[in-house]
């Protein structure tokens, strides 16, 4: 007999009576083994050859069997960061960035990422700072690492240090990236057009053009109706002539 005072178990979409832990296991089992990932390093000083954080992510992703479709290093410039992220988000299921999440004047990654996110994942930043606290103590609060969805893709912004990237990958992302891709695509995302012939057309910003309305017929006067005579042209010097009111004064006769 069910205790009415006990709240029902959360099923997390796996069916009635399935505990959350079992549901997560089912989702991981159904998750794709190969995910399309793009990696972006944001730094004024690093190059692809000296980018230890980016190279670490590339190595780990390939070792896990994922497909790295883009890798790039850009400067701490908001326009360059946004331009690159927009391109990556169109083609990758998951985008990983490192760098620019601190508090200095050159750290502009976070506001750019926030402007692109349509569905935040606050748990990523919370977990990252919790794990970082065990390693660096209270300095973990200086990191603004964050994650979220941008329509049909996920983006995670991490600090630029190699140790921080390892913390995020080994403690959070490495084991969940396939599960994350599964959740993104399980029911689709708002504003994302599904691929295939049965995909619905999506044009929320364009209103359908109304059908052209037929013009009403023009009334034609009968042939026996005399046309009205044309109005006689007004005299240029008449009182109703606009030119007479534009400062043109009547020439006076000279006084003798």
Structure summarized in a few sentences:
Residues 221-234 have a biased composition (Low complexity). By secondary structure, the protein is of the alpha/beta class.
Question: What is the radius of gyration?
Answer: 34 Å
CATH superfamily of the domain at 31-171: MoaB/Mog-like domain
Distance from N terminus to C terminus (CA atoms, Å) equals 127 Å
Strand order of the largest sheet: 2-1-3-6-5-4
CATH topology of the domain at 31-171: Molybdenum Cofactor Biosythetic Enzyme, Chain A
Unreliable stretches (pLDDT < 50, length at least 5) are 196-211, 225-229, 236-240, 242-249
Shape: globular
Could you give the order of the helices and strands?
Answer: HEHEHEHEHEEH
CATH class of the domain at 31-171: Alpha Beta
Oligomer description: single chain
Mean pLDDT across the residues is: 78
Secondary-structure-derived class: alpha/beta
CATH architecture call of the domain at 31-171: 3-Layer(aba) Sandwich
Largest sheet: 6 strands, mixed
The percentage of residues in β strands lies in 5-15%
Number of helical regions: 6
Strand tally: 6
Provide the helix percentage.
25-40%
Protein name: Molybdenum cofactor biosynthesis protein B
Region (Disordered): 1-32, 200-256
Biased composition (Low complexity): 221-234
Biased composition (Pro residues): 207-220
Structure description:
The chain is of the alpha/beta class and 256 residues long. It has a domain at 31-171: MoaB/Mog-like domain (Molybdenum Cofactor Biosythetic Enzyme, Chain A, 3-Layer(aba) Sandwich). The protein is built from 6 helices and 6 strands. It has helices at 20-30, 52-63, 78-91, 109-116, 122-136, 162-186; strands at 36-42, 67-74, 94-98, 119-120, 146-150, 153-158. Helix 2 (52-63) links the parallel strand 1 (36-42) and strand 2. Residues 38-180 form the MoaB/Mog domain. Residues 221-234 have a biased composition (Low complexity).
